[in-house]
């Protein structure tokens, strides 16, 4: 049976404007008008648009054709799906306006879609440029290029060498990239530039950005809509970083003093937490409406006026609420915020026009400047007790980033909360084992009835059994109840299965045996030995791994130019080990490995994460050899069996996509020490052929 496949759009802002249901429906409509050459032209759009329910009573076909005619001199020009979505979005945005002011709406609509193909928001660009100028203005390397002028394309030109984006990622999540790994010469050669972009994209995935359909060449060319979309995600992650109980335990004040309410808060997306915080203060200030978005609900700026009056009454201006003009009120609101110490990133026009990205950023800045929450020690203590232990948190982070890299329709904010209705697990199963999910028996969120959640989770367990996962004495209700150790165990097996499938694809080319963890260790040892070095490991638990030297030698063996040995320490003290571990992760990502481990995983020799790192480097080497037309002896055969690897240069990401999927998982026996006693992740090597078929 065909599985659910999310519709992916390269422009993340554009994708965020539609639900997956809407995108699938519009994709189907768009495909239905393709001509015999498989193309859709500008001239095809009016007849298609006028049939859509949203516009059938608002615009005539001639009106839509007239609007498009203002933008395109040739109606035979081909348009892509994203252009179609932008036309749809602009028509939708003006439908309400046409009801109230039919004379002006048409001319406004004409002006708004004149650059439909990969339109960028000049307001957003100006805001992001201001952010970059403030946070990177003192950077030792970038200060020679800053400040940028928002009125020019300096931003996109500077982004072409990758340094700016790498530095911005470190502003958002400090320590993500070891800046020693960034190529920072004033003039970079193509290899160095590509390394920076590869490091940037793999690091962006490692902090939670969605980079589906963005490649290094897009960044080299400085494609504005893709660069702006990536920068938008990075800045959003920075601004929302503290909107969780771990970073801001005072947020517990937003809920009742009970475990259930706190768990619900922990499961919310950061922007939802921000909305709840805003409404919490608005209610205290006497604002009667509930703000449910950062666009239409804040256009009149009244909610902002109430919010700032509650948080900073000493800077209150009585005229703010008395003025009748929304633009003037928005200006007074920004003046109030500036007196509080909030940097001005948006204009009154951005508020009135309902720019969701910029309004979200504005509210996040207010939160950081003055959240107005209690510092009651009792509440904070209660919140801290609700947070996970360190190991569980690290594993949750790994699984969350892995799932979000798959390109499924859903986005995970908190693994333990978001998987409890079963839907996301079904999406992941369908991704790693296409056709395994019976969607007729699945219920998509929001799910009103608890038994539907159990049905979804029961199907998850059923598929797990079919894939030979170890799920002894586990039922769907265990997932619904949020049993963290069982969820961790199941997700690890999913990642393991994902890698086995990738290894199987290599085996089909080599006609060799299935690879095992021993094969990967032997390959890594031989690879290092081939360069004349003597470091060797006995297992993925080998304590010598903690120094980092073995992996640096392995990476150097894979690509000698990628490691600067002048930066490598002896790996004896904890500080030296940390420096090496941080460098290893950035060098591996720079090479092309999409990995989600932390320096602590190397220092503490986390068996599972060490395996994924080794396997990802191995996969990159095999792919690189194939790209150069070489052949590599199979580590499984050991005596001349050949692997003809896939045609791709970067290491695969953990997304499981053929061209960019990372090896994340285990090959043979591993027991999850912290899982329940009846959940072990193990496999019998003689049954591996059955397991993956």
Automatic annotation (TrEMBL):
Keyword Cytoplasm recorded: yes
Compositional bias segments (type: Polar residues): 631-647
Keywords: Actin-binding, Cytoplasm, Cytoskeleton, Repeat
SMART domains: CH
Single GO BP term: actin filament bundle assembly
UniProt key word rRNA-binding: no
UniProt cross-references to PROSITE patterns, sorted A to Z: ACTININ_2 (PS00020), CH (PS50021)
Annotated segments matching region Disordered: 629-662
Subcellular location: Cytoplasm, Cytoskeleton
Recorded GO MF terms: actin filament binding
Residue ranges of every copy of the Calponin-homology (CH) domain listed in the record: 122-239, 268-371, 393-499, 514-622
Main location: cytoplasm
GO CC, alphabetical: actin filament; actin filament bundle; cytoplasm
Quaternary structure note: Interacts with F-actin.
Protein name: Calponin-homology (CH) domain-containing protein
The species this protein was found in: Corchorus olitorius
